[in-house]
Model the fold of this input.
Amino acid sequence: MSDSQLNKSQLNKNQLNESRLSPDTEAFTGLILDPQEILPSFTQAANWQERYRALMLLGKRLPPLDEALRQETAQVRGCESNAWLYHREIDGRHYYLADSDARIVKGLIALLLAAVQGQDRQAIAALDLHQYFDQLGLSGQLSPSRTNGVLALAEAIKAAAVESANH
Done:
Protein backbone atom coordinates (compact mmCIF):
# COMPACT_ATOMS: atom_id res chain seq x y z
CA MET A 1 0.00 0.00 0.00
CA SER A 2 1.41 3.38 -0.99
CA ASP A 3 1.65 6.33 1.42
CA SER A 4 -1.24 8.10 -0.33
CA GLN A 5 -3.40 4.97 -0.09
CA LEU A 6 -2.46 4.58 3.57
CA ASN A 7 -3.32 8.23 4.30
CA LYS A 8 -6.62 7.90 2.43
CA SER A 9 -7.41 4.69 4.32
CA GLN A 10 -6.60 6.38 7.64
CA LEU A 11 -8.77 9.37 6.70
CA ASN A 12 -11.70 7.06 5.94
CA LYS A 13 -11.25 5.28 9.27
CA ASN A 14 -11.16 8.62 11.07
CA GLN A 15 -14.33 9.74 9.30
CA LEU A 16 -16.07 6.50 10.25
CA ASN A 17 -15.04 6.90 13.87
CA GLU A 18 -16.61 10.36 14.10
CA SER A 19 -19.94 9.78 15.80
CA ARG A 20 -21.28 13.07 14.42
CA LEU A 21 -20.83 12.11 10.77
CA SER A 22 -24.17 12.93 9.18
CA PRO A 23 -25.58 13.77 5.77
CA ASP A 24 -25.91 17.41 4.70
CA THR A 25 -29.18 19.20 5.43
CA GLU A 26 -29.91 19.41 1.69
CA ALA A 27 -29.90 15.61 1.49
CA PHE A 28 -32.75 15.49 4.02
CA THR A 29 -34.87 18.24 2.51
CA GLY A 30 -34.15 17.12 -1.05
CA LEU A 31 -35.75 13.71 -0.56
CA ILE A 32 -39.33 14.07 -1.74
CA LEU A 33 -41.63 11.08 -1.67
CA ASP A 34 -45.11 12.33 -2.50
CA PRO A 35 -47.71 10.00 -0.95
CA GLN A 36 -50.33 11.16 -3.48
CA GLU A 37 -48.08 9.84 -6.25
CA ILE A 38 -46.80 6.70 -4.49
CA LEU A 39 -49.78 5.24 -2.65
CA PRO A 40 -52.09 4.60 -5.64
CA SER A 41 -49.66 2.04 -7.06
CA PHE A 42 -50.30 0.00 -3.90
CA THR A 43 -53.98 0.68 -3.26
CA GLN A 44 -54.88 -0.01 -6.90
CA ALA A 45 -52.68 -3.08 -7.33
CA ALA A 46 -54.67 -6.17 -8.27
CA ASN A 47 -52.50 -8.65 -6.37
CA TRP A 48 -49.43 -9.16 -4.21
CA GLN A 49 -47.11 -9.52 -7.20
CA GLU A 50 -48.04 -6.01 -8.39
CA ARG A 51 -47.48 -4.61 -4.88
CA TYR A 52 -44.16 -6.41 -4.64
CA ARG A 53 -43.07 -4.92 -7.96
CA ALA A 54 -44.23 -1.46 -6.80
CA LEU A 55 -42.12 -1.90 -3.63
CA MET A 56 -39.04 -2.81 -5.64
CA LEU A 57 -39.49 0.18 -7.98
CA LEU A 58 -40.11 2.52 -5.06
CA GLY A 59 -36.94 1.33 -3.33
CA LYS A 60 -34.94 2.34 -6.40
CA ARG A 61 -36.07 5.94 -5.84
CA LEU A 62 -34.26 6.15 -2.51
CA PRO A 63 -30.77 7.54 -2.97
CA PRO A 64 -28.10 5.19 -1.63
CA LEU A 65 -26.23 6.32 1.47
CA ASP A 66 -22.57 6.98 0.98
CA GLU A 67 -20.47 4.11 2.36
CA ALA A 68 -19.01 6.46 4.99
CA LEU A 69 -22.54 6.94 6.40
CA ARG A 70 -23.25 3.24 6.74
CA GLN A 71 -22.13 3.40 10.33
CA GLU A 72 -23.03 1.03 13.11
CA THR A 73 -24.40 3.96 15.14
CA ALA A 74 -26.98 4.58 12.39
CA GLN A 75 -28.05 0.95 12.01
CA VAL A 76 -31.60 0.09 12.96
CA ARG A 77 -31.71 -2.77 15.44
CA GLY A 78 -34.35 -5.41 14.85
CA CYS A 79 -33.96 -5.54 11.09
CA GLU A 80 -32.78 -8.82 9.63
CA SER A 81 -31.24 -6.89 6.72
CA ASN A 82 -28.83 -4.04 7.21
CA ALA A 83 -30.72 -0.76 7.44
CA TRP A 84 -29.44 2.71 8.34
CA LEU A 85 -31.47 5.69 9.47
CA TYR A 86 -30.60 9.37 9.88
CA HIS A 87 -32.87 12.09 11.24
CA ARG A 88 -32.83 15.85 11.19
CA GLU A 89 -35.35 18.30 12.64
CA ILE A 90 -35.67 21.53 10.66
CA ASP A 91 -38.10 24.24 11.77
CA GLY A 92 -40.21 21.79 13.78
CA ARG A 93 -40.47 19.34 10.88
CA HIS A 94 -38.77 15.97 10.79
CA TYR A 95 -36.77 14.62 7.87
CA TYR A 96 -35.17 11.24 7.42
CA LEU A 97 -32.67 9.51 5.19
CA ALA A 98 -32.48 5.76 5.21
CA ASP A 99 -31.05 2.92 3.20
CA SER A 100 -30.86 -0.84 3.24
CA ASP A 101 -28.86 -3.49 1.48
CA ALA A 102 -32.09 -5.38 0.69
CA ARG A 103 -34.28 -4.14 -2.18
CA ILE A 104 -37.63 -4.99 -0.63
CA VAL A 105 -36.62 -3.33 2.65
CA LYS A 106 -35.62 -0.22 0.70
CA GLY A 107 -39.11 -0.12 -0.76
CA LEU A 108 -40.66 -0.49 2.69
CA ILE A 109 -38.40 2.29 3.98
CA ALA A 110 -39.58 4.54 1.15
CA LEU A 111 -43.21 3.82 2.09
CA LEU A 112 -42.48 4.76 5.70
CA LEU A 113 -40.67 7.93 4.67
CA ALA A 114 -43.56 8.89 2.39
CA ALA A 115 -45.79 8.89 5.48
CA VAL A 116 -43.47 10.87 7.78
CA GLN A 117 -41.10 13.03 5.71
CA GLY A 118 -41.57 16.70 6.60
CA GLN A 119 -44.21 16.00 9.25
CA ASP A 120 -44.32 17.39 12.79
CA ARG A 121 -43.69 15.26 15.87
CA GLN A 122 -47.39 14.76 16.63
CA ALA A 123 -48.18 13.43 13.14
CA ILE A 124 -45.25 11.02 13.31
CA ALA A 125 -46.20 9.82 16.80
CA ALA A 126 -49.78 9.24 15.60
CA LEU A 127 -48.76 7.03 12.65
CA ASP A 128 -50.53 3.68 12.98
CA LEU A 129 -48.33 1.36 10.96
CA HIS A 130 -50.86 -1.49 10.96
CA GLN A 131 -53.59 0.78 9.58
CA TYR A 132 -51.19 2.26 7.02
CA PHE A 133 -50.16 -1.19 5.76
CA ASP A 134 -53.80 -2.33 5.71
CA GLN A 135 -54.62 0.68 3.52
CA LEU A 136 -51.76 -0.26 1.17
CA GLY A 137 -52.77 -3.93 0.98
CA LEU A 138 -49.50 -5.08 2.56
CA SER A 139 -50.78 -6.47 5.87
CA GLY A 140 -50.37 -10.22 6.02
CA GLN A 141 -48.17 -10.20 2.91
CA LEU A 142 -44.82 -9.70 4.62
CA SER A 143 -42.90 -12.43 6.40
CA PRO A 144 -42.80 -12.19 10.21
CA SER A 145 -39.11 -11.20 10.14
CA ARG A 146 -39.77 -8.47 7.56
CA THR A 147 -42.76 -7.22 9.54
CA ASN A 148 -40.59 -7.05 12.66
CA GLY A 149 -37.96 -5.12 10.73
CA VAL A 150 -40.47 -2.60 9.41
CA LEU A 151 -41.87 -2.16 12.91
CA ALA A 152 -38.32 -1.58 14.20
CA LEU A 153 -37.79 1.07 11.51
CA ALA A 154 -41.09 2.76 12.34
CA GLU A 155 -40.23 2.79 16.04
CA ALA A 156 -36.78 4.26 15.28
CA ILE A 157 -38.43 6.99 13.19
CA LYS A 158 -40.89 7.81 15.97
CA ALA A 159 -38.16 7.70 18.63
CA ALA A 160 -35.96 10.13 16.66
CA ALA A 161 -38.81 12.66 16.48
CA VAL A 162 -39.61 12.33 20.20
CA GLU A 163 -35.95 12.45 21.27
CA SER A 164 -35.32 15.63 19.29
CA ALA A 165 -38.12 17.31 21.26
CA ASN A 166 -36.33 16.39 24.48
CA HIS A 167 -33.07 18.07 23.45
Summary: Residues 144-165 form the longest helix (22 residues).
